[in-house]
């Protein structure tokens, strides 16, 4: 179990500090009241500089300042990855191409318009506010809908790499699609980054990196949340694909350690129809559990919650991030999802101004009339972390150098995610999460952030 | 009712009795209620499938999306302030209009084409309809209000049955009987059957086969629209394509199980599919089956029935 590891803010990036006039990022707080955080993040290479040396003037030198590569050469960090064929594919003097896939159609739909707008906002903001941060390069995002289908995910990932020339791939959501695409990426030496999902099927992949807590790593946090709400017995409903086995095992173990009882447990299909949903709800209701930990798609969650409402059964529905905690769920799932509580790698819009005031400003500037939304915030946070990683790699950007930088840097803190920390042996970099609570009384209906930067403790 | 149908009815009742007895012994009696409550929606969609198949021999993959058009219209009208009753009426009309356009634009030009071509064409209509819904709603779900707010009108074996569900079950039962009588007792119904079996002879006696086709498709679309506006609101929300992704395949299974030519069979098939899915989800014996037992067991039951009785429970042999 990873615990939150507070990162020393060793070498802040000068351009970020100077160009944006912001302070270094805040490391994960374990309290509900996180202090105001900087809008600019920090990449923290394993430099020999003293912690707190926040005034480092030359950001471009920082990535090389790893102790394994001379700082003044601006060479990529040394590490376990060796450049191979196509190491610099997708990188030119003025552009980096990244490919993102996500299920904008299928059983776990993400609003397509939000995605199309949100994927570019951070990069537009960066190009205008700090054009030299990525050494004169802009980032071009290529996006494909994976339709919530693993086979299709592999197909679109291949397209983005082979046809669009993507330097790296990013998974926007959906455990099975991420696993499938990450395996393709690993076979071809392509860096792949996603929010944490499962570890099974991903743990051995050299080029895979999770920027937030995996489902299994969130299990103790979920038990913590249940205990805070006075729950002693709960139900467990999880998708029936093998990717989720480890989440079930992790919840069983965490429940045991926390002294909580699993009163009802079942697996549910990804395409659960009404009879299946109602049967599961009846099982939960008959067992009398007052809370349900679930790991399903939003559509199945909403189906279960509606069946529960129809049966006069409204337990606390609780689960790991990312998609069930999106405002799209409250938009069409209310009032059934009113009792939903979900962990999330990012907070919601209600507190983002205190963590990153640039977000809404950038939306107002670059999104035309589109309002800032939580999909945009997820993408903003992801891209902001990516920018730190590119910056830390330095001007000589290649796939091997990029991945070496990830595993040798001490961490990346964008001020929205809990700090991200990889090692050569551990590519699951998440260290904490936020807690979101469905609010069906608000207008528009959305999740509100009830705790920030929680970690096990 | 001929001897063959009578035998089918006896087989169907026998299976139902055995199924209920087994479920009671397995402590799964609740699944019967869940099956009837949820499977009736499949049955209503299956009625439309059977209607088209009876009249033209086509597996209509667009049947779900006749309902899709209706549910989208219901949402758009009601969320614009139109009273619920009028919105339902508008939704039914939208579904029928979609059926009419499908017949005029897609089916009629393919009148002489092999049935497999028509089948593929209906799949195309369904995909187009889903794409339009995604475009309209940005691929997102929408909340949809119930016609009747009472959720616990009756409670049977611990399962609350809402007024909306009672409406659905009642509608399905009435339609299954009325349509059964329509096809056996009325001239129009007999003409439709005649047109499907002997189109040339039907034309020779002065009946327009094309007009009959139009009538049948509009009626089937009405059934699909009814299924959607009654069943979907009880789930609280809908997503684009929900009638195809959530109801069409179980409805096809129900229709085949009941006998593709039998309207009461569609009712029975829908309920059986619902019960089997509920049992496969809940019963201990199925818990260790990898994958999705609720789907696997339904298809095993279907396979078993078709081996024993290829024409389905209440269907007629060719």
User: Helix segment count of chain A?
Assistant: 13
Q: Which series of helices and strands of chain B comes N to C?
A: HHHHHEEEHHHHEHHH
How many DSSP H or I helices of chain B? 12
* Largest beta-sheet details of chain A: 7 strands, mixed
Form type of chain A: globular
Q: What structural class do you assign from the helix and strand content of chain B? A: mainly alpha
Which descriptor suits the 3D outline of chain B? globular
Low-confidence stretches of chain B: none
Instruction: Give the assembly state of these chains.
Output: heterodimer
Order of adjacent strands in the largest pleated sheet of chain B:
1-4
Category from helices, strands and their pairing of chain A: alpha/beta
The largest beta-sheet of chain A arranges its strands as 8-7-9-10-11-13-14
Q: Please give the alpha-carbon distance between the first and last residues of chain B.
A: 16 Å
Summarize the amount of helix of chain B as a percent range.
over 70%
Helix content of chain A: 25-40%
Whole-number mean pLDDT of chain B: 87
Number of strands of chain A: 14
Strand % of chain B is: under 5%
Biggest sheet record of chain B: 2 strands, antiparallel
- Following the backbone from N to C, one meets helices and strands of chain A in this order, namely HEEHEHEHEEHEHEHEHEHEHHHHEEE
